[in-house]
Each structure stands twice: as C-alpha cells, then as structure tokens.
Amino acid sequence: MLRTIALNQNNKLLLNPPLQTLKDMKWYWCDFNTPTDEEAELLLTHFHFHPLAVEDCMVELQRPKLDYYENLHFLIIHAIDDRLETHEIDLFIAEQFIVTFHLQPHKEIEDIWNNLQSFNDFQKISPLEIGYKVIDKIVDSFFPIVERVEDQLLAIENSDEVQQGTDTLITQTYKVRKDLLKLRQTIIPMRDLIYRIVESKRFLNQEQQRAYFHDIYDHLLKLSEMIESNRQLTADIRDNYISLNSYRMNNIMKTLTVITTIFMPLTFLAGIYGMNFVYMPELKARNGYFIILAVMLIISLLMYYWFKKKGWFDSD
C-alpha cells in the first residue's frame, strides 16, 4: 500500500494527493507500507532514486547504514517485533520530502502517521523531523523488549533453581542469552549508525537537530549497556551452574573414594581367606570366621574415624 501526506503552498494538509502534484508541495511524506511490486517500482520510475539504494530496499536484511546521494540521504534502520525478529525500514530524506519503505507494517510508523494528521502547526514540520520521529519511535520500542528479556533473566536468578543447579536452569539461561544476542546484533549497529549521523555535518546542519539525534544515541547507549550487563549476568549464572555441578561431583567422588578405601583392606582379607590352599592354620580355627569379621569391622571403624578426623566428610 502506498499512501501520501503532503503540505501544499497554502499550508493545507492533503491526504493521498496525486503523485504528479507532489513536486508543487512544500513537503510530503510517501509511505510504502507492504508495497506491491508495481508500487515498489515507483522508487525508480517516479522518484528516480539511485538503483543501488532501491536494490537495498528490495533485499532484506541489510545492515543499518547511511548513504549520501545528490540532494538526498538514504538510511537503513532496523525494527524488532515481539518475537525478536528484525525487520528493515528504509528512509529517503531530502529537503522537500521523506519516503519510507518497509515490507512489514509497523505500529510505530502508524502512530506517527496518525499523529501527524492531528498536528496543528504544519509549518514547523519538516521531512527531517519526520525521519527523526520515526527513528526515535523505533528505538523507544526496543526498551519494552529488552526489559522483558531482562525480567526473564532476573526471574531465573531469583529462582530456587539457581541454588539447585538443575538442567532446566541452564536451558532457560541459554535461551535468554540467545535472545540477548539477537538484540545485540540489532542495537549495536543502530547505535553506530546514529553516532555517524550525530557526527555528520552533511546530514545535520543545525545544532538543534543534532541534539535530537544525540538523544536517540543516548537511548541506544543505555540499551547496549543493559544488554551487555545482562549477558554478563547470564555468564555468571552459567559459571555458577558449572561450579555447583563440579562441587557436587567432587563430593560424590570423595564419598566413593572413602568407601573404596575402606573396602580395600577388607577385600585384601577376603582375598587371602578365599584362597584354596589346604595348609592354612586359620581355616580350622573354630571361631576363625567370627574373628575375621570382627577384624574387618574394627578396621572399618578405625579408618572411618581417621577419615573423619582428617575432615574428609566435611561438606564445606
């Protein structure tokens, strides 16, 4: 769907005027919302945008970037949906117009489109300001998503499973870490893009404009810091899980070692008296069986007492 909103020379806002009349407007915004092939072709046939920029629009998913063309700036930004899937939004910004191109509908763009129609002083609106509002709205939509993943991680950290070290814990932790990686792959390139815009003297020629984009950059910095701290927290939970499992394994091995050590002399005695030699004096002793059992019991108790004194059974 192709839709247009424009401000004519009489400062009157027009909805969906004919494309042929757009060049006579003060400014206009064309939004290609899930366009058809015929509508997408207008980027070349009517607007005459650079073929490389149009090619970037047709191929998802390009990295966020800023390209300069003659009297035109071309931006690629990324949006994230609730399933953490990344979608591309393309912006063509010039002094007289802004063209947005996206293959999926976005609530943020829809909100700006509706709010723009109810705005009173249209003379204060410019294509660059509309572009700023689109980018700002997209970046603000990142916060609920990042905070939701952060809440999942905090729930894992505060659960009893952290102390129990269950397999479910590590599975949930790796899922959150995977989600954080997806967010990082979107937010970090967006942060670098906005930094380039802030530092560009060609894109922004007024300090007031620079201040607005610097505010977006601050938001992206905060988002990237949240992601990095949460990724560090997932690493801490993972290390805690590994340490706890290693501690338990060491205790198990220590217990098995103690049991094996106690049974070693007992096995030695059983091996001796299990041999089938005829001339073994002890074999004919009337109470030899009970004596050997008593010796085995005494050896076991003495070894247990010795190990206990050495601290082998301490859990600390």
Quick overview:
The protein is α+β, with helices and mostly antiparallel strands and 316 residues long. The chain has ten helices and seven strands.
Question: What keywords describe this structure?
Answer:
single chain, 316 residues, alpha+beta, seven-stranded mixed β-sheet, rod-shaped
Question: Overview of this structure, please?
Answer:
By secondary structure, the protein is an alpha+beta fold. Helix content is 59%, strand content 14%. The protein contains 10 helices and 7 strands. It has helices at residues 37-40, 42-45, 51-58, 107-117, 127-140, 142-158, 161-164, 167-199, 207-273, 288-310; strands spanning 2-7, 13-15, 27-33, 65-69, 72-80, 86-93, 97-102. A 7-stranded mixed sheet has the order 2-1-3-7-6-5-4, sandwiched between helices. A hairpin with a 5-residue loop joins strand 5 and strand 6 (86-93). Helix 6 (142-158) runs antiparallel to helix 8 (167-199), helix 6 (142-158) runs parallel beside helix 9 (207-273) and helix 8 (167-199) runs antiparallel to helix 9 (207-273). It starts with a strand and ends in a 6-residue tail after the last helix. Mediates influx of magnesium ions. This is Magnesium transport protein CorA. It is found in: Cell membrane; Membrane.
Rounded mean pLDDT is: 84
Give the helix/strand class.
alpha+beta
Care to count the β-strands?
A: 7
Shape verdict: rod-shaped
**Distance linking N and C termini:** 68 Å
Low-confidence stretches: none
Number of helices: 10
With strands numbered from the N-terminus, the spatial order across the biggest sheet is 2-1-3-7-6-5-4
SSE pattern, N- to C-terminal: EEEHHHEEEEHHHHHHH
- Rg for CA atoms: 36 Å
Question: Mind describing the biggest β-sheet?
Answer: 7 strands, mixed
Strand content: 5-15%
Helix content: 55-70%
